[in-house]
Amino acid sequence: MKAITFAEYGDPDILQLSDIPDPKVGPGEVLIRVRSAAVNPVDWKVMKGYLDGLMVVDFPAVPGWDVSGVVEAVGPDTPEWSPGDEVIAYARKDWVHGGTFAELVTAPVRTVARKPTSLDWHQAAGLPLAGLTAYQLLARLGLKDGETVLVHAAAGGVGLFAVQIARALGARVIGTASEGNHEFLRELGAEPVTYGAGLAERVRELAPDGVEVVADFVGGVLDVTQAVLADGGRHGSIADGSVAEAGGLAAWVRPNAEDLTALGDLADAGKLAVPVAEVFALADAAKAFELSQTGHVRGKIAIELSA
Q1: Is the whole-model pTM more than 0.90?
Q2: Per CATH, is 2-127+274-304 categorized as 3.90.180.10?
Q3: Is the pLDDT of residue 306 over 90?
């Protein structure tokens, strides 16, 4: 099969379009014929070696964890799925090797959910990792109907999901972003505030008594979080481990089919949109990584595969 591979750590120019063997399908796994694979910042961070102290990489490795596609085959003891099922997955395994930037990928059933019918292949591929990151952080912080949540980096790849999920839960959302993204946040249902000097004061103008929950998707904003958090409030971050020392939650996303199904249900109920910024061919994966590295993409970047 065709796949994007890298044989060592480095920049996007190390990515190669390669012919590699089809993956074996083990017990409790499904083989997915990939229709689209989304690019996330973690993909190029793995490629650069930034996660070398955390995850084993088996070279040559195929990057990518987000996927939408059709079940091609199932392994032993896999009653949940059948060939022909349309699915999505946050197909992260315990090590980095056989990722989603390929014509075929295997995924453990714990990572797989049905594809939302309201989303096209690229939108569906863009949902799992970023959507789960937002969903799981808000769930672990116990965000409830009627509460106010401050979302740091609300227009970013994870923040835009957090805004929509929080609104679906009935929360009031204040979101930080550059002024150019304020109208976008209003469309998602958030009250935008400009980040930078004076942010805490601007948030306090909107929520004089403070906010019950703060969800940080950018890092480096603990001082603002502490300044605007109401007494007894909860806060967490996916980007700043130091929040744990300040009574917050340092979070990491995990594959979870039940959570992914809940996200798909929100999408099909019209409560969760997945904007797609740009779509690349498999052979242009390096260009997709370069675009992601700019940090100025509003929406998901997708890699298109089989039709």
Answers
A1: yes
A2: yes
A3: no
